[in-house]
Write a structure and sequence with these properties.
mainly alpha, globular
């Protein structure tokens, strides 16, 4: 196996581990469980859930952006779950929650000059 392929495989495994740990942490919160397990959510509840999840996934994007200039920056690429977070929020809450969380998650990347990230994250959400 080429070294670059091995690095990408390790990066995907770490992303999976980060996503599993975030899911474990969020599902232990009773407030998040109440928001998540409702069959029907009002617009206010969708916006609150989008804001909470955008803050969590946006922090990962911010970490990747801030550490992109460090020599050993490959270790922090696994924290960027912005695309995956936008997709999950769109599946959980519909187009309002997916669009709002996609736009909010992409703000750190937009500040870094990644101009198409907002369009991509919003479309995926």
């Amino acid at each position: 196996m080429p070294p670059q392929t091995a690095q990408q495989l390790v990066l995907l495994w770490v992303k999976l581990a980060v996503a599993a740990s975030l899911a474990s942490i969020l599902t232990r919160s009773t407030a998040f469980q109440r928001m998540l397990l409702r069959e029907e959510r009002t617009l206010t509840q969708r916006v609150k859930m989008a804001l909470v999840c955008a803050a969590i996934f946006g922090t990962g994007v911010l970490t990747r952006v801030l550490t992109s200039n460090f020599p050993a920056s490959d270790a922090y690429k696994a924290l960027d779950l912005g695309l995956e977070g936008s997709l999950v929020m769109g599946m959980l809450g519909g187009y309002v929650m997916g669009l709002l969380s996609g736009v909010l998650i992409s703000l750190p990347a937009m500040a870094n000059g990644e101009t198409l990230s907002m369009l991509l994250f919003a479309a995926v959400g």
